[in-house]
Amino acid sequence: MPLSTFANGLVHALNYLNASTMATLVGQVPEIFELKLASTSSGSGSDKHISSKQITLLAPLNEAFHGSGISQLSTSDLQDLLNYHILDVWIPNRNGRYVSPSLLTRYTDLPHSHPTQSLIVDVNGSFTTIVTPLSRLCVQAKSSYMHLHIWTIPQLIQIPEDFFNTLSAMKMDQVADFVSSAFLAHVIRGMTGVTAFVPTSQAFYEHHHHNKQNHQDNKRDIALRHFSTNRTLIYSSDLVDGMSLETLYGTCVAIVNGLDGRKKVVGNDGYTTANILRTDILLSNGVIHIIDKVL
Fold first, then answer.
1. Which stretches make up the FAS1 domain (predicted)?
2. Cα separation of 167 and 52, whole Å?
């Protein structure tokens, strides 16, 4: 079947930017790109009605696909992956910081179990950086085609994985092993919406060192105090001063705004207070916020 005018033009634009692997995907599954990048509400045959909405496509360079296994993905899985590379806004080229939740990849036709990807865009003069929860990607080149703005990036933006694989990717295996050793792996993986306040490895080390003579808290109890109850998905924009969250342990933690302007989590004891260091690290079934103390 011949490509539509839109898809054919997109192939040429991507080839020009050294993103020929992405261009090949357009040729193989044009319907995915047309669904997200061009309106199909009118028109027929190979020509689609092109939307005037400004969209940004993050196009990985050829090298990004080496060893990625993308050729083995089903059409459905490929659509999931590509959705993480489409921003339904145009980001002006000026100094500044563009932060979610306004800058989100929207999933209009995917199950609610798929989280939206939160990206931060740093624009500093002629340099632009895409910041994901796990990496910083320098934009290599910029171009445009019709209403579409195309930015090339050196790596694929990965789909969020489960709690344990995500911590492993963040070099926080010690924390992942602690939760797993508390016999909670099947519980966490089976939840359909979880918010986890995850202490840093240093925080776990300091807690263990301070409490090595005191065993009143077992691993399971400690771990349970850091996870919200099932179906409680709280992103950073929802962490407001004074809110209370019930944990899997059965107690509650509170969110407060500190005098230093930072958001904090207060444990059930009322005095253990942890700073929130990083937010909105996405999981396949929830979100992680990194804190600097064990609750």
1. 150-295
2. 40
- Please state, in angstroms and as integers, the Cα–Cα distance from residue 257 to each residue in 261, 272, 277, 290, 291, following that order: 6, 14, 13, 16, 14
Cα distance between residue 215 and residue 192, in whole Å: 32
> Left if phi > 0, otherwise alpha if psi is -120 to 50, otherwise beta: which for 263?
beta
- Which pLDDT tens digit goes with each residue over 100-115? 333 333 333 334 444 4
pLDDT tens per residue, range 203-237 = 988 887 777 655 545 888 999 999 998 777 787 87
7-45: per-residue pLDDT in tens? 899 999 999 999 999 999 888 888 877 777 765 334 444
Query: For the chain, where are the alpha helices, taking DSSP H only?
Result: 5-16, 20-28, 30-37, 75-83, 163-169, 173-181, 185-190, 201-210, 219-224
Cα separation, 59 vs 219, in Å, equals: 44
Strands 148-153, 55-60: pairing kind? parallel
CB 228 within 8 A of CB 244: no
